[in-house]
């Protein structure tokens, strides 16, 4: 699904109002209803809910939510943060409607008006939404600080108050730190950026039927992979297919002491549907690989400890394989660099480049030009920084990422909490699967195996990256569900891969 910027969201709001058509107030009511549906599902016990409203439309949402919850017999307190003399029309209208249901509205003008907040209460944050135009200050800031200090559960309406939806905040900005963010229809770019984790919490979108045609036509470089979209990418298998149909991949992996990386990438590649797999490893890894991964063919390198290229075993040149995956555990020995240097110009089809192969690229930038177009590079942030430059915030990093993918005509999977797949066309697809349990040695090697298998099966490289990252994260989520995220190991992730 698309991620739109604030101006586009505002225009989408107007397009919906004009084209559906629907009165602005009714659209706000629809948004409030969608929020309330989620809320009563999630908080079925009618615990005391304190709703903090600003004076714009986010505050209007909060007032409508208060009325709808009161109608459902929830004990609700409404606190309006009166920071300015100006209120939006829909705020005023909902204020009048609320007053027909309850007389009890508290107005916060000074710190002494801020209510005490306890741990068994729920706070709904509707102070500021996507209309944020400057840092929070004065009574708004004091109220946010009080909410952040409180032990109550906090649910933000649309976006945490004080957080910009599509531009960086300053380090010292005061922003709500919610447990949940319930946003309307589409996620905001801010939600998928690492620095913002504590200002987002667990986020969900609720459908408010905004104008579909506007969304379809709106230009944006940013997408979030919806589970439905990921499943659609999966190729169906023909019952007359045979192992040749699914390609023959070559993995160049491992070195002395790092043969585990070879085994993990090879097992993941096989578990991701490759037809045939050949693994080239330094000679010392031969018994390891033949024992741990009997399904793979093995090409022992001429060198005992590191990869150098030539093998004692006859075989086609790397360029003849359907695809090549290189990097996990290979180290940076001069012989391995020499092999990489010789190998790259012989490859014409997209490959997967990971780990030390990426570090070799950073240290020998001229090799970047030799990487076949549409290859998939899978750096973590440190490796990406070595390949490019440092950045001052997540937004600058996205710019650098898009430029890099466009300039070098490669697909970049920047790994992280929301892994970002950057395409040669300059688009970015954020992935939502995965959990902190995946931050453990070897999971990157697993991803390389997955992506290599998908390329071997003829997936378009961008689709391979989007689907592969999604499936890899989902496997991690399955493991976390079964045995908890702590103590998860990369082999668990291989075993949990599913392609359906
Ligand atoms: N889009 C959709 O599809 C739908 C959107 N809906 C809802 O509308 C919300 C957006 O509403 P909104 O535009 O009124 O913005 P919101 O943030 O409530 O208030 C802006 C006001 O606050 C002011 N202000 C700004 N920064 C400030 C600060 N630091 N401290 C103090 N004040 C500050 C700002 O002042 P100005 O910049 O004009 O000077 C302006 O007066 C959106 O988040 C969602 O909840 C749903 O109802 C329906 C579907
Ligand atoms: K809010």
Question: Can you tell me about this structure?
Answer:
With 500 residues, the protein is α/β, with parallel strands linked by helices. The chain has 2 domains: 214 residues, Rossmann fold (3-Layer(aba) Sandwich); 266 residues, 3-Layer(aba) Sandwich (UDP-N-acetylmuramoyl-L-alanine:D-glutamate ligase). The chain is 38% helix and 14% strand. It has 16 helices and 17 strands. The strands form 2 sheets. A 10-stranded mixed β-sheet has the order 8-17-16-15-14-13-12-9-10-11, with helices on both faces. Strands 3-2-1-4-5-6-7 form a 7-stranded parallel β-sheet, sandwiched between helices. Helix 11 packs parallel to helix 12. The radius of gyration is 26 Å and the shape is elongated. The two termini are 20 Å apart. The mean pLDDT is 97. The structure holds ligand NPW and potassium ion. The site of ligand NPW has 28 residues, from helix 1, helix 2 and helix 3. Keywords: ATP-binding, Isomerase, Lyase, Metal-binding, Multifunctional enzyme, NAD, NADP, Nucleotide-binding, Potassium. This is Bifunctional NAD(P)H-hydrate repair enzyme. One of its GO terms (molecular function) is ADP-dependent NAD(P)H-hydrate dehydratase activity. It catalyses: (6S)-NADHX + ADP = AMP + phosphate + NADH + H(+); (6R)-NADHX = (6S)-NADHX; (6S)-NADPHX + ADP = AMP + phosphate + NADPH + H(+); (6R)-NADPHX = (6S)-NADPHX. InterPro entries: Carbohydrate_kinase_pred_CS, CARKD, Nnr, Ribokinase-like, YjeF_N_dom, YjeF_N_dom_sf.
Tags for this entry?
binds potassium ion; seven-stranded parallel beta sheet; alpha/beta; 500 residues; UDP-N-acetylmuramoyl-L-alanine:D-glutamate ligase; binds ligand NPW; Rossmann fold; 14% strand; 17 strands
């Amino acid at each position: 699904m698309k991620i739109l910027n604030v101006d586009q969201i505002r225009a989408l709001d107007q397009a919906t109002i004009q084209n559906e058509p629907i009165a602005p107030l009714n659209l706000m009511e629809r948004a409030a209803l969608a929020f309330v549906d989620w809320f009563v599902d999630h908080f079925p016990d009618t615990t005391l809910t304190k709703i903090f409203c600003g004076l714009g439309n986010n505050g209007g949402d909060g007032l409508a939510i208060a009325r709808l919850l009161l109608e459902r017999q929830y004990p609700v307190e409404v606190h309006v943060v009166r920071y300015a003399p100006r209120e939006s029309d829909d705020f005023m209208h909902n204020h009048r409607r609320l007053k027909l249901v309850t007389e009890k509205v508290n107005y916060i003008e000074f710190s002494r008006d801020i209510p005490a907040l306890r741990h068994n209460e729920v706070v709904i944050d509707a102070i500021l939404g996507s209309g944020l135009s400057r840092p929070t200050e004065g009574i708004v800031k004091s109220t946010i600080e009080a909410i952040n200090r409180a032990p109550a559960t906090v649910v933000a309406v649309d976006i945490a108050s004080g957080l910009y939806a599509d531009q960086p905040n300053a380090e010292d900005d005061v922003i709500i730190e919610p447990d949940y963010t319930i946003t309307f229809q589409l996620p905001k770019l801010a939600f998928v950026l690492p620095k913002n984790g504590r200002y987002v919490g667990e986020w969900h979108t609720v459908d408010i039927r905004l104008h579909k045609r506007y969304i379809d036509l709106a230009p944006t470089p940013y997408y979030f992979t919806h589970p439905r979209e990921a499943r659609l990418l999966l190729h169906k298998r023909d019952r007359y297919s045979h192992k040749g149909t699914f390609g023959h991949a070559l993995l160049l992996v491992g070195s002395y002491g790092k043969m585990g990386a070879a085994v993990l990438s090879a097992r993941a590649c096989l578990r991701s549907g490759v037809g045939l797999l050949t693994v080239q490893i330094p000679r010392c890894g031969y018994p390891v690989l033949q024992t741990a991964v009997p399904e793979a063919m093995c090409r022992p390198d001429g060198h005992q400890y590191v990869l150098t290229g030539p093998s004692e075993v006859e075989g086609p040149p790397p360029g003849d394989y359907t695809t090549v995956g290189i990097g996990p555990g290979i180290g940076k020995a001069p012989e391995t660099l020499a092999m990489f240097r010789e190998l790259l110009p012989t490859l014409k089809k997209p490959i997967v480049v990971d780990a030390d192969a990426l570090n070799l690229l950073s240290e020998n930038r001229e090799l970047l030009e030799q990487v076949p177009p549409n290859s998939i590079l899978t750096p973590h942030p440190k490796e990406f920084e070595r390949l490019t430059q440092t950045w001052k915030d997540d937004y600058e990093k996205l710019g650098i990422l898009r430029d890099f993918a466009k300039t070098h005509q490669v697909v970049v999977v920047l790994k992280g909490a929301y892994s970002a797949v950057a395409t040669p066309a300059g688009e970015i697809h954020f992935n939502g699967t995965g959990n902190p349990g995946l931050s453990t040695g070897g999971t990157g090697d697993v991803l390389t195996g997955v992506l290599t298998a998908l390329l071997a099966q003829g997936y378009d490289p961008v689709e391979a990256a989007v689907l592969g990252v999604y499936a890899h994260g989902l496997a991690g989520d399955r493991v976390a569900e079964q045995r908890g995220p702590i103590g998860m190991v990369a082999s668990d992730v291989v075993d949990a891969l599913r392609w359906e």
